[in-house]
Design goal:
The chain contains 15 helices and 14 strands. It is an alpha/beta fold. β2 and β3 form a beta hairpin. It starts with a strand and ends with a helix. It binds adenosine monophosphate. Adenosine monophosphate (AMP) binds next to α10 and α12. Its EC number is 2.7.2.1.
């Protein structure tokens, strides 16, 4: 069965065509910087690697570009769109409605639309991907895999906010949790690696968006992102945890509009707001040259993660392993080192030499005397989505 995965972010689309159940990747690629005159489209198959810089105005054009790459008569991998049996769409916000992978129909699309105000950077882009795919790949089944689904097991005491009950009972205001596909994928690999079904795990997803999840018996029991993917850790452009009184102060005293504050907290804050750089590679490089804002931002970022680790050890009443994953978690030995420093009270000890090694597979970077394992596990949301689509259809 050929399954095409479409993973739309706010300004990017990752895609992958896989044959299931063998999980053989037929091609993979990405459209980055959508909305810019210099959008980058990449395509990688067994025989070809293409990189192209051109103007891609919106997600609709992005999907058209992906289709053209797949069907390219010389370098493509498909003769016809009918060769695709199913399309797996990553959908960021499924509210409390969707806790399972779901076949898409009009009702499902309407609900995804309904949740758009809760994930304004993502859900509208996910919907465009679905609607374009329905038109172009009209013989394929369209399936939604929700980022929120894995967190359906978080108990009420952890996901409910301490505001009047009607907001939880009638208006759906609660913590939903995100990056579920990634946390599920890496935690399953860790469980297998540890050979312990009831392992107590803390999964730290550090990419452009960052989140941390406490996992017990394979189930999410608490998570740092909340009602929208904005709470919790310091991210590339998002502030993470912030006292809500600051929002009122910005509006009522400093004269910002609510839209401006929303834009500021989601797109101009986090590491970008602290340093002027969004990409951690630039921040690390500046820090190594003595840039004090970058040094402080790295320390703030790691400190926030440490605090969540402490809280989740309490929630789990123990800990078998910490997992680092995604762009920063997998690649930044410095961030792992800052997070794991001075954690001996918890029996967390990093091995600096192992931490500096690079690998594209799972690796253990703790010292031999560390009771808690520190694992670096490359995430693969596309494979996880493909597995879920395949399971649903078979
Ligand atoms: P993701 O959202 O998982 O694709 O992660 C993207 C982020 O990973 C980028 O913005 C970078 O900040 C970070 N990243 C990627 N490679 C490295 C690296 N070698 N060192 C540090 N950070 C990295």
């Amino acid at each position: 069965m050929n399954i095409l995965i479409i993973n739309s972010g706010s300004s990017s689309i990752k895609y992958q065509l896989l044959e299931m159940p063998s999980a053989q990747v037929i091609c993979t690629g990405m459209i980055e910087r959508i909305g810019s005159t210099k959008s980058i489209s990449t395509f990688k198959s067994k025989d070809y690697r293409i990189e192209n810089i051109s103007k891609i105005t919106n997600h609709k054009e992005g999907i058209e570009r992906i289709t053209a790459l797949l069907l390219d008569s010389e370098k493509g991998v498909l003769y016809s769109t009918e060769e695709v049996d199913a399309i797996g769409h990553r959908v960021v916000h499924g509210g409390s409605e969707f806790t399972e992978t779901t076949l898409i129909d009009n009702e499902v699309k309407n609900k995804i639309k309904l949740f758009s105000p809760l994930a304004p950077l993502h859900n509208p882009a996910n919907l465009v991907g679905i609607e374009m795919a329905e038109k172009i790949f009209n013989s394929a089944k369209q399936i939604a895999v929700f980022d929120t689904a894995f967190h359906g097991t978080v108990p009420v005491k952890a996901k409910k906010y301490a505001i009047p009950n009607e907001f939880y009972n009638e208006k759906g205001i609660q913590g939903y949790g995100f990056h579920g596909t990634s946390h599920k994928y890496v935690s399953e690999i860790a469980t297998e690696y540890l050979e312990k079904q009831n392992a107590k795990l803390i999964s730290i997803h550090l990419g452009n968006g960052c989140s941390i999840t406490a996992i017990k018996d394979g189930k999410s029991i608490d998570h740092s992102m909340g009602f929208a993917p904005s709470n919790g850790l310091v991210m590339g452009t998002r502030s993470g945890d912030i006292d809500h009184a600051i929002i009122f102060y910005m509006v009522n005293t400093l004269g910002y509009s609510l839209d401006e504050v929303n834009e500021l907290l989601n797109k101009k804050s986090g590491m970008l707001g602290l340093t002027g750089f969004n990409d951690l590679r630039d921040i690390e490089s500046e820090a190594s040259k003595g840039n004090t804002s970058c040094i402080l931002a790295l320390e703030m970022n790691a400190y926030r993660i440490k605090k969540y680790i402490g809280a989740y050890i309490a929630a789990l009443n123990g800990l078998d392993a910490i997992i680092f994953t995604a762009g920063i978690g997998e690649n930044s030995s410095l961030m792992r080192q800052l997070v794991c420093k001075d954690m001996d009270y918890f029996n967390i000890h990093l091995d600096d030499a192992k931490n500096d090694l690079r690998s594209s597979t799972i690796r253990e970077v703790n010292s031999l005397d560390s009771k808690v394992k520190i694992l670096v596990i490359p995430t693969n949301e596309e494979l996880e989505i493909a597995k879920q689509v395949f399971n649903l259809l078979t």
